[in-house]
């Protein structure tokens, strides 16, 4: 009977660990998508600055500025900069509210995230 009880406890803990791993993996994927979006926005912004520089150079060289096109590029730059600023603000807000502070395991002293149920070093339940 004792072996069945241990097995049941093992399965319960394994499910909890699996759920925690799944949540962590999901968070990592979401964060990676956000970072890729930010990289793409930065690349688009650099491209806009390059186009703006080319337009200005050609206009200066030929003394024929395409003011309408330059205004369009400037408007695009402003939109991209606004989106990047919002992304940065969201990232900073998420950092402040993301995870509780790290805590030490009451059994082995290993560092763990504040919301850990089990120690990542010794595997014991974090309830001291």
Overview of the molecule:
The chain has 128 residues and is mostly helical. It contains two helices and two strands. A two-stranded antiparallel sheet has the order 1-2. A hairpin with a 6-residue loop joins β1 and β2. It starts with a helix and ends in a 16-residue tail after the last strand. The model has no long low-confidence stretch (mean pLDDT 87).
Cross-sheet strand order for the largest sheet? 1-2
Helix-strand makeup class: mainly alpha
The largest sheet, given as strand count, sense and whether it forms a barrel, is:
2 strands, antiparallel
> Number of DSSP helices?
2
Distance between the termini: 28 Å
Rg value: 26 Å
What pattern of helices and strands is seen along the backbone? HHEE
Residue fraction in strands? under 5%
Shape: rod-shaped
* Helical residues, percent: over 70%
Low confidence ranges: none
Give the beta-strand count: 2
How confident is the prediction overall: mean pLDDT? 87
């Amino acid at each position: 009977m004792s072996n069945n009880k241990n097995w049941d406890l093992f399965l319960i803990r394994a499910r909890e660990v699996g759920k925690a791993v799944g949540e962590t993996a999901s968070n990592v994927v979401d964060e990676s998508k956000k970072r890729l979006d930010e990289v793409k926005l930065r690349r688009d912004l650099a491209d806009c600055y390059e186009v703006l520089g080319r337009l200005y150079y050609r206009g200066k060289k030929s003394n024929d500025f395409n003011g309408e096109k330059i205004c369009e590029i400037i408007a695009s730059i402003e939109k991209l900069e606004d989106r990047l600023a919002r992304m940065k603000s969201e990232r900073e807000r998420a950092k402040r509210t993301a995870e509780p502070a790290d805590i030490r395991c009451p059994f082995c002293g290993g560092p763990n995230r504040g919301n850990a149920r089990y120690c990542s070093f010794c595997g014991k339940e974090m309830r001291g």
